[in-house]
Design brief:
Elements lengths: L50 E4 L7 E2 L9 E3 L2 E2 L23 H5 E4 L3 H9 L9 E3 L10 H4 L1 H11 L4 E5 L8 H9 L3 E6 L5 H7 L6 H13 L4 E8 L8 H11 L3 E6 L6 H12 L4 H11 L18 H17 L27
Parallel strand pairs: 1-5, 3-6, 6-7, 7-8, 8-9, 9-10
Antiparallel strand pairs: 2-3, 4-5
Helix pairs in contact: 2-4, 7-8, 8-11
């Protein structure tokens, strides 16, 4: 039996949240409900607030063999993401914690404080072979709680000591705080940053990705990173057919003018619990476009809300997907952007000496 989970008090103010509901995770056998005890709440207690827990990390680096991804290893300092992007493909991962992909995903977060220590241990193993580590491939490493926990910064310090290449993916302008580390690594060919830019419509962005920086602020981040000598790739992701796809060329042009040297794109993906959450959001915020958006989504995924086939899940298929791909290629060529950022170096990798190590004579 799977039931709707209404444990979140419906009377709480939810301003700045992407999801409108909190359905039970797919692994839960029973649903739960909220019961009002009848006592009035103080005004400051009537807000749905973010909670952060901690977990002990068994391993830092996650490996993958996906032919759709340009990297084979990654690390993620946090589970869940306070940015609250309604389209986030990572929402279903919260089900493994016994939590909802809805409001739980953006309000009940998990930090990994011992991730830097585990990372150092894994990089120090004798059999380890370096390749670019991607940070932020699941949830954003520069979401608001990073300001307090600084796990991402600590991981960058470890990678810096090992001369290990890193590619950061984020929407967060907090990445500017770490330009001291990233610019120094970039000068050695060891770092680059991808900035996700979905729309230049500030009102739409506020509704669709409520706690992420405003589009203009992300362009400022691209400008500042580029000025610091850090290669930046703009990620026009996700492209939402019938809602943001008309902005593709203008997004690429704005990012190029801000200093981006490369660009990529990914089509909207609605795996598992993301689909009902996104449809609920469409009906609430874009009722006049909801039918067209979902019709185009299904057209690109063989009549379904999402198809996870290798080679198609990131781009979709069919006439509309093909048109977006052609538009992207033409715009990238016209603007002088690269499809791929320059490769990062792996030949500088070296394990830093530890106390008690025997020093070399040469």
């Amino acid at each position: 039996m799977r039931c709707r989970d209404d444990t979140i008090d419906p009377g709480l103010r939810r301003r700045g949240r992407g999801a409108a509901s909190n359905a039970a995770g797919r692994h839960e056998r029973y649903g739960r409900s909220h019961d009002d005890d009848g006592w009035p709440r103080a005004d400051d207690a009537a807000v749905l607030r973010t909670q952060t827990g901690a977990e002990r990390t068994r391993s830092a680096i996650t490996y993958n063999r996906s032919p759709d991804l340009p990297f084979d290893r990654s690390l993620n300092p946090y589970r869940g993401c306070e940015h609250g992007c309604i389209y986030c493909f990572a929402r279903p991962s919260h089900a493994w914690l016994g939590l909802s992909a809805g409001l739980d995903f953006e309000t009940r977060l998990v930090a990994k404080p011992d991730l830097p220590r585990r990372l150092e241990q894994e990089l120090g193993r004798r059999g380890y072979r370096p390749a670019t580590i991607a940070i932020g491939t699941n949830t954003d490493p520069y979401q608001p709680i990073e300001r307090e926990h600084e796990i991402t910064r600590a991981c960058l310090r470890v990678l810096d000591r090992f001369n290990h290449p890193v590619a950061v993916v984020t929407k967060g302008c907090l990445v500017e705080r770490d330009m001291d580390i990233l610019s120094d690594m970039a000068s050695r060919g060891l770092a680059r940053v991808g900035i996700s830019l979905t729309t230049m419509d500030a009102a739409l962005s506020r509704r669709m990705e409520p706690r992420a920086p405003a589009p203009a602020r992300r362009l400022a981040t691209i400008r500042r990173l580029s000025a610091a000598g850090i290669p930046v790739r703009v990620m026009t992701s996700p492209v939402v057919p019938g809602l943001t796809d008309h902005e593709l060329e203008s997004l690429l042009a704005a990012a190029r003018d801000a200093g981006a040297i490369a660009a990529s794109w990914v089509m909207l993906r609605l795996p598992r619990e993301v689909s009902p959450l996104f449809r609920e959001w469409l009906d609430s915020h874009c009722p006049d476009r909801a039918g067209r958006v979902m019709r185009l989504v299904r057209e690109m995924h063989g009549g379904r809300d999402y198809a996870a086939d290798w080679g198609r899940r990131m781009r979709g298929s069919g006439a509309h997907a093909g048109m977006i791909a052609r538009r992207f290629d033409i715009a990238v060529k016209r603007l002088g952007l690269a499809h791929h950022a320059p490769p990062l170096r792996t030949d500088l990798f070296a394990r830093p000496p530890r106390v008690g190590d025997q020093l070399s004579l040469f």
